[in-house]
Amino acid sequence: MKLIAYNYRSDELGYFKKFAAKYGVELTLKKESPSAENVDDARGRTCMSMITTPMTEELMRKFYDAGIRFVSTRSIGYDHIDVKAAKKIGMHIGNVSYTPNSVADYTVMLILMATRRMKAIARRSAAQDFSLSGVQGVELHNLTVGVIGTGRIGRLVAKRLSAFGCRLVAYDLYENEELKQYAEYVPLKRLFAESDLITMHMPATRDNYHLINRETLAGMKDGVFLINTARGSLIDTGAFLDAVESGKIGGAALDVVEKETGLYYNNLKCEVLRNRDLAVLKSYPNVIVTPHTAFYTDQAVSDMVEHSVESCLLFTQGKENPWQIV
Q1: Residue from 211, 206, 210, 137 nearest 171 by CA
Q2: Digit-coded pLDDT (tens) for 101-137
Q3: What whole-number distance in Å separates Cα of residue 125 and Cα of residue 209?
Q4: 230 and 176, same structural domain?
Q5: Are residues 304 and 257 both part of a single domain?
Q6: How far apart are CA 310 and CA 315, in angstroms?
Q7: How many CB atoms lie within 10 A of CB 216?
Q8: Is residue 106 domain-shared with residue 89, that is, in the same domain?
Q9: Catalytic residue IDs
Q10: Total domain count, the chain
Q11: pLDDT score of 199 more than 90
């Protein structure tokens, strides 16, 4: 199989070479993102691998005309791909899976950092301000934690948090029997009302767009903590900013934000951020913002590359493909 991989990072290079050899793949690597300018590089190939590049109907048609029939995104989320257009064009789409431990561990870290006011403590310490005022934390065993989304990552987060002795409630469209040994499934409205801290672990869909909005925030406890390592579109940023400033939100940790595409994974020192809301979020002492790095471990990167290569191979062989979406 001939495969072209776009916008590969330096940390992926060794894994691409390893798995191309393992699966007998003739691999072409491009540092550039897929675009109308480099679509000709894909000619003669049926599959392409990429990551987080917006794949519009117009761009998809260009790659389809060049012979590409399967696009594998090296990410779990695929909201950057116009799936509806793919179905219309006849393009097939696949994502990847990777170890859930990476995001689960990172989520627990963010929960601890948010509840112990670590951003403010670190900033003060760097300026040799060792005073205690304003940095008093809370202990997890005294909290009710709401877990929204109980797939592989959500279940691991709940399992890890159970060791801290906190009360756990959960919501998902599909209940998981394993999780019930750690958490009680409750209606979403009740989860909002009872939780001292809420952590989100679901994909971005049309139905859960701006799940956290002015109405749902109003139904939460005053001083609630919010953790998001899933997708930025789950939170209405304007409503969130107002809630932080009013004190409704007592603290937060966000690994994802709205309109992060084109910003994260780039060195933007000395530049004006093209996302005013992100600039404001970064200014709050009780809001931790990290650049979509919860997934980023050696094992996760290896999994992402291998599954993308393997998915393309399965597609060309006409075999059952666990990562194929369309």
Answers
A1: 211
A2: 999 999 999 999 999 999 999 999 999 999 999 999 9
A3: 38
A4: yes
A5: no
A6: 9
A7: 17
A8: no
A9: 231, 260, 292
A10: 2
A11: yes
